[in-house]
Every structure is written in structure tokens, then in C-alpha cells.
Amino acid sequence: MDKLKVGILGATGTVGQRFVQLLEDHPWFEVAYLAASERSAGKRYGDACAWKLPTPMPERVRSLVVQEPKPGAFDGPLVFSGLTGDVAGPVEEEFAKADYGVVSNASSHRMDPDVPLLIPEINPDHLQLIKAQQEKRGWKGFIVTNPNCSTIALCLALAPLEREFGVEKVWVSTMQAVSGAGYPGVPSLDILGNLIPYIPKEEQKIEEETRKIFGHFAQNANAIEPHPMGISAQTTRVPVLEGHTETVFVKLREEAPLDEIKRSLREFKALPQELGLPSTPECPVVVREEPDRPQPRLDAEMERGMVTVVGRVRPCPLTSVKFVLLEHNTIRGAAGAALLNAELLKAQGYLQ
Ligand SMILES: NC(=O)c1ccc[n+]([C@@H]2O[C@H](COP(=O)([O-])OP(=O)(O)OC[C@H]3O[C@@H](n4cnc5c(N)ncnc54)[C@H](OP(=O)(O)O)[C@@H]3O)[C@@H](O)[C@H]2O)c1
Questions:
Q1: 97, 117, 302, 317: which sits with the fewest CB atoms below 10 Å from its CB?
Q2: Which CATH class is domain 149-328?
Q3: Residue-range domain boundaries for the chain
Q4: Residue with CA at minimum distance from ligand 1 atom 44
Q5: DSSP secondary structure string for all residues of 24-60
Q6: Gap from CA of 162 to ligand 1 centroid (Å)
Q7: Which of 4, 108, 11 is nearest to 61 (CA)?
Q8: What is the pLDDT of residues 170-217, one digit of tens each?
Q9: CATH fold of the domain at 4-147+335-347
Q10: Model pLDDT for residues 141-178, shown as the tens digit of each residue
Q11: What distance in Å separates the CA atoms of residue 309 and residue 325, rounded to the nearest whole number?
Q12: How many whole angstroms from 307 Cα to the centroid of ligand 1?
């Protein structure tokens, strides 16, 4: 099979570098175009990018010249976007207008009523919004978004519980890694030996996005009806490099014994596993039994960073169950999530 040519917008950033890393030797996609700001445009990627990953920069991309993000510079069906939120919105629209599929990490279009907010294990049916989006906006391309990093981690753990018992209410507190703020991100003097109990707009994102993700696609209205679950989030930034940790309390609609809850988390499988998409983990949720796991330094890279690792699953005196979860925020929370979205789009015929 010939590989599809893809581009990366925001290729020099934290998420952009993960895209470059994950796309090296990908069986379906090959990087043909890299874009970033005017600060990087015109330079070779090897010179423009302050590479921060432990694996070497792939040779293939090192000599590609970074461009400003303008459609038409390469002949391929798809761009991944790791642009900052302040610029992503209009740039992604330009690419969709020019017939590209855009798979975005940015928050700009996540809550647009005609844009899928996709987690392939949970709401692949929301891809039906693409047709309505193309008709309404008069473009042949499309925009598909992946959720906020903390939202993805939470939703993967809630998905089996919603499927088997129903989720009525959720309380979640996050301890988010510094890499979630991009590069150079939070100043070291603010975060070392410290915790910052505020991440702008993050709590609202978790609350709104979760209800959209679990929402019902109403065929007649071509729209998503948000899930009625109650959800309340608090978010903090902690001096961890990679890996967002969350403490979660869930009130189920139907009560269930603890071992049934654990079984449901452990056995959860969905469409990506059925289709055998290249980036899919065997099971999207891993349950640990040790009392002191998961930990970011030890567990963030489990299953190539593509899973939510759940631990300390136990009864809660106020709700049905409580647990701790961990996710690799720049892989399953960002570039890996977008890559899985693109693989689903390809498998379902949206990319030619
Ligand atoms: N980091 C995470 O864990 C994470 C998780 C989920 C979602 N996200 C989202 O992913 C996006 C990227 O985040 P990040 O952490 O990778 O940020 P980052 O490290 O700050 O990287 C930003 C990228 O955008 C480019 N850029 C900035 N201004 C631009 C402009 N005016 N025109 C064109 N390109 C421009 C930068 O290029 P230069 O290098 O040339 O400046 C860089 O490539 C954000 O929307 C963020 O909210 C991040």
C-alpha cells in the first residue's frame, strides 16, 4: 500500500515533535510537510526545532524546510494540527476549505456543533457530523478534533462504566504535568517544589467536552445531544514532566460490585481494537492492583503511552467507586490520540 502524505502544523512544538516521532515508520502515513510560525519558517526542521524527545530526530524530517501554514504546499489528504489555540482556529479552517482533512489537538473547534470531538473507542458514530459540516460550511475538507488531554484520560476510564452500568455523576481532580503547557511552558521558578492550583479554562473543558463525547448523535438534527451526566472538575499543575494523574469519584446509575467494575474496566474493547488500527492498544484501560500505582515516572509509557492506567479502584462512602488514573499527556492525550483518530478516518474511507 502506498503511504498517504500528511502534514504537521505546529511541527516544532511539544505536540508537533510527538507527531514527528510517532509518524516515523508509520505503516499508513508519511510526513511530507511541516509548518510552524514565521520564527521557524524557511529553516530546515533540524535547525528550527529544539528537539526535546529522548529518541533521535528522524533523519527523513531533519532536512525538510519548515513553512508557514498555508494550504497548497503539498499534495496529500491530511494535516495534523498541533498549533497553539490562539492561531489554530482560522488556519485549520483554511486547510479544510482547501480540501484537506484536519485532525486537530487545539481547542478552537472542539465545541463547534458540527465538529466531531472524537475518541475512537467511544464515539466513532460522531464522524457522521462531517457530512453536515461540509454542507454547512461549503467545504470538501473537514475538521475533526481530539479532546483536551485530561478529558481523554477520564473518558477512557468512564467509557466501560457508562456502557455497563451508566454514569450519573463524576468528580475529578487533576495533577497535570508541565509538558501539558507546551514549550517553554510554566517557568521553572513557579513550578519547582510547588503546585499551581489553576490552569486557565481547563476545568470548563473537562466538564463540557466529556458531556459532548458521551453525547448522542441525533440523526434527524445532525447534531450531538450532550450526555446528562453531572461532572465537576478541579485542575492543578504539578512538577511532573510527562503524565497527567487524576483522582476520580463516580456515581453509577446502577450500583455494581467492585470486582464487576474492575472487570468492566479491564475487559473494555471497542472499534479500534476490532479494526486493529496500527496505534491502538490491545485494551485502552489497564488496571493496576498495587496500592501505590499508577505513578507518572513508572507507568506513563505503558502500552506505548496509548492507555489510561487505572489504580486504587475501591468503594467510596459517598459515591459508587473511586480510583486514580494516569495518562501520557503528549501521547494518548495529544499526538497519539490524533493519530488514532486519523487511522479511524482512513479505515472508514474519509481519507483517499
Ligand atoms: N502539550 C500537551 O500535552 C497538549 C495536549 C493536548 C492538546 N494540546 C494542544 O496542542 C496544541 C499545541 O500545544 P504544544 O504544547 O505543542 O504547544 P507549543 O510547544 O507551544 O508549540 C506550538 C507550536 O505552534 C507553532 N506556532 C505558534 N504560533 C504560530 C503562528 N502564529 N503561526 C504558525 N505556527 C505557530 C509553534 O511554532 P514555533 O516553534 O515556530 O514558534 C509550535 O510549532 C495547543 O493547541 C494545545 O492546547 C497540547
A1: 317
A2: alpha beta
A3: 4-147+335-347, 149-328
A4: 84
A5: TT-SSEEEEEEE--TTTTTSBHHHH----SSSPPPHH
A6: 33
A7: 11
A8: 999 999 999 999 999 999 999 999 999 999 999 999 999 999 999 999
A9: Rossmann fold (3.40.50)
A10: 999 999 999 999 999 999 999 999 999 999 999 999 99
A11: 5
A12: 23
